[in-house]
Amino acid sequence: MSKKREMIILEPDGRIHKEGFCSRPMTCPYCGGKGWFYSGRQEPETIPCPDCEGTGEVIALVTIDWKPNKQ
Ligand SMILES: [Zn+2]
């Protein structure tokens, strides 16, 4: 199956600091994008997906923390 990739090119710029990136939204792998599950009780009751909180999508927050090279 084909996969789309997102790439971060690391490059220090100016003073080093923390950088944050946010990925594009991706389908929640737990609920498959539905955003909810049946509660499992007898009534057809639904509960929101605990991973995506009912949105059906997740995003990745990537933090890059630049540090001095002290090795
Ligand atoms: Zn979900």
Structure summary:
This protein has 71 residues and is mainly beta. 0% of the residues lie in helices and 28% in strands.
- What is the mean pLDDT? 90
Q: Helical element count?
A: 0
Strand segment tally: 6
Radius of gyration: 19 Å
- Give the low-confidence spans: none
Helix content estimate: under 10%
Question: Can you list the ligands bound to this structure?
Answer: zinc ion
The order of strands across the largest sheet is 1-6
Major sheet summary line:
2 strands, antiparallel
Note the overall shape. Answer: elongated
Approximate strand percentage: 25-35%
Q: What's the order of the H and E elements? A: EEEEEE
**N-C termini distance:** 41 Å
Structural class of the helices, strands and pairings? mainly beta
Key features?
single chain, 71 residues, mainly beta, two-stranded antiparallel sheet, 6 strands, 0% helix, elongated, binds zinc ion
List strands and helices in order, with pairings.
Blueprint: E1 18-22, E2 26-27, E3 36-38, E4 46-48, E5 57-58, E6 61-65
Antiparallel strand pairs: 1-6, 2-5, 3-4
The structure holds zinc ion.
The site of zinc ion has 8 residues, from loops.
Describe the fold and architecture.
The strands form three sheets. A two-stranded antiparallel ribbon has the order 1-6. A hairpin with a 7-residue loop joins β3 and β4 (46-48). It has strands at 18-22, 26-27, 36-38, 46-48, 57-58, 61-65. It has a domain at 28-65. The chain has 71 residues and is mainly β. 0% of the residues lie in helices and 28% in strands. Zinc ion binds at residues 28, 30-31, 35, 49, 51-52, 56. Residues 28, 30-31, 35, 49, 51-52, 56 line the site of zinc ion.
